[in-house]
Each structure stands twice: as C-alpha cells, then as structure tokens.
Amino acid sequence: xxxxxxxxxxxxxxxxxxxxxxxxxxxxxxxxxxxxxxxxxxxxxxxxxxxxxxxxxxxxxxxxxxxxxxxxxxxxxxxxxxxxxxxxxxxxxxxxxxxxxxxxxxxxxxxxxxxxxxxxxxxxxxxxxxxxxxxxxxxxxxxxxxxxxxxxxxxxxxxxxxxxxxxxxxxxxxxxxxxxxxxxxxxxxxxxxxxxxxxxxxxxxxxxxxxxxxxxxxxxxxxxxxxxxxxxxxxxxxxxxxxxxxxxxxxxxxxxxxxxxxxxxxxxxxxxxxxxxxxxxxxxxxxxxxxxxxxxxxxxxxxxxxxxxxxxxxxxxxxxxxxxxxxxxxxxxxxxxxxxxxxxxxxxxxxxxxxxxxxxxxxxxxxxxxxxxxxxxxxxxxxxxxxxxxx
Length: 391
Ligand SMILES: Cc1ncc(COP(=O)(O)O)c(C=O)c1O
Hints:
Order of helices and strands: HHEHEHEHEHEEEEEHHHHHEEHHEH
Distance between the termini: 17 Å
Largest sheet: 7 strands, mixed
Helix content: 25-40%
Number of helices: 14
Bound molecules: pyridoxal-5'-phosphate
CATH architecture of the largest domain: 3-Layer(aba) Sandwich
CATH superfamily of the largest domain: Type I PLP-dependent aspartate aminotransferase-like (Major domain)
Shape: globular
Strand content: 5-15%
C-alpha cells in the first residue's frame, strides 16, 4: 500500500511538541534527593484551577475514577443515596457511584449529542436522589441549562463527568464549572493526558476541596500532607484526621499533563478545525449522521462520532482502507454482564441502545492532516454510497 494506516488518535504527536519540557521535569525529579513529585502536582493544580476561574479548586488524583469517588465522598454521597446518570458512559462512571455505596439510576439520552435527556430526568427523581450526573459524551457538552434548572428545582447537586471535555465550552462557560463539582481524566488518550493514569476534581467549594485533599492523602490533614517533603519529614505521621486513601496524582504524570495542558487551547482549536473539516467533507453522505452540537457550545472533540446505517460494515470497510475507527462507549452499560442482575434488558434505554449500535468514532487528534481527513472521508463516503463492499 502506498500509505500509512491512519490511527484513531496520535498522542505521540502531542508528546513531540512538549518532549523537552517533559524530559526536563523528569530529570529534575530524578536529581531530587527526596524524589518529591508534589511540586509538579501543585503547579498543575494552580494552573488548572486558574483556567477554570476565580474560586475554583483543582485537586490532582490518581485517575478520573478516583476523582469521581473522592468528589462523591467529599460531598457526603453514600449508602442510601441515588445518583442519576446515563447508560452510555464508560462503566467507570457507574462503578464509582457503586464504590461509594450509592445507587446509580439510569436515564436515557438525547438522540443528539448522546447526553442525559432533561425531559426524562424528573420522572427518575425519588426522595433518595442526591445528585444528577450528566456526562459530556465524546467531548460534546450535555444540555446543562435544562439540567441545572431541574437540579435547582429539586434541590439536587449537579455534577459533571468532564473526563472527555476538558476545555469544552458550554453556552460560553467552561465544561466542569456549570454545576457543584466535576471530574476530569488525564488517561493518556484523553483530551489532555499523562503517559499513565491521572485525574482531577474540580470544585468551587472550599470545604469539599479540603475533604478531597484529605481523602487522597492517607487522611492526613492537608496542612501536613501537602507540605514540602522536607518539612513533612520533620512532622512525621501527625495529623491523621480521617481514614483516607493513597490516591494523589503522581508527580511525573503531573509534569507530563502540565506540559500538555499549556497547549490545551492551541490544540482545542486544531481539533475544532478538524471537526469542521469532517463536517464539510461528510455533508450529505447518505445513511450517515455527523455530530450534532447545540448552538453556543464548543465541544472538546475528544471523539468525532458519526452514526451509520451499517456501522459494522463501515468499520470493516475503513479497516480494509487502513483507517482505524472506534466504537467507544458501546454497547451501553446496562447490557454489560456486570449489570445483568439489574434486569435492564434490551429495550430499557432505546435511544442509548440505538446510538450504541450505530456509532463510530473516526480518527481525530490535533495533528491530523487534511490529507488524512480526506482519505477517511473518502472511504466513509464510498461505503455509505454503496460503492464499496466489506469483503
Ligand atoms: C466518560 C468517562 N468517565 C470516566 C472515566 C474514568 O476515567 P479514568 O480512566 O481516568 O479512571 C472515563 C475514562 O476512561 C470516561 O471515558
């Protein structure tokens, strides 16, 4: 073949832009007699908090899942409580609710945008409901105004799974700042990621921030735990005020994420341009739906997700044409073996099921070239127009 395979994402392109910064940080850590990564974590936290606005806290933890668990716990959500969320997220979103002893209540999604359907939320609210947790699926914002009105009317917390939406704008505001708290993921292939796992809690609440810090660091009072290691060594094991976890963000991951976070807005523009290019290239392709974005919203474009009348056929055709694709977040969680006991069989959430059977993620990343996109779109068009077979 005269061409290379086009990957779904290319994180190495991002790393190539910031390699020197990452290597300098790693060298600094290797030369530090205490190998103290906390300064990298603190520097990242300060920049992410500032980015999200006055009064917001950003607390670095081991993963997006850890961020969600710690946020829920810090908000006092636990046994006996219910959290309303979607059936078409990563299973981690549901599992984290179960991990704190609460119960997730699934509500179907909108046909457009894959997001929690505000029209269906109120019927799912019970006296045990504590929070509504929309997910900005594929990096496309959920309808936050409508969900916020419902949460306010019923005195519920509104939380955001912003793991796919770092830097996205929702009606002009930053994803992650529209409710009472949010969590992001810095897993390697997220909008901004480390070379391993990482995540962050975003909260506007000083007390919640303090509790997240407490829980992530062995339950040791942050006034001790977050001191430079040389001072902490003097104080020793004092100040344990809770049974916490060991879930602090790793220093090297913080340094990697920080180098890339500084490019977030630059890369966001490149992703948006790539999405707009696909929109134009794929306009009018029969049997294909391109992403639907509400006016006023600016997705993070973690994924460019289309719907096809014959998803599996399209996927096989792309594969044969050396184009990678994904079926991320499908099938929905209620059809996964782990939740069989819930008795939520096929037909329980028809929209999520329909979307899950039709969705396909096309290659998108900040460094994707016009030529690559033209090749992807040409292959999609050829299949959808019936001029291609999957053989
Ligand atoms: C929508 C969504 N929520 C939560 C998570 C959990 O994040 P992490 O993998 O960092 O624990 C993921 C990650 O894969 C995700 O895609």
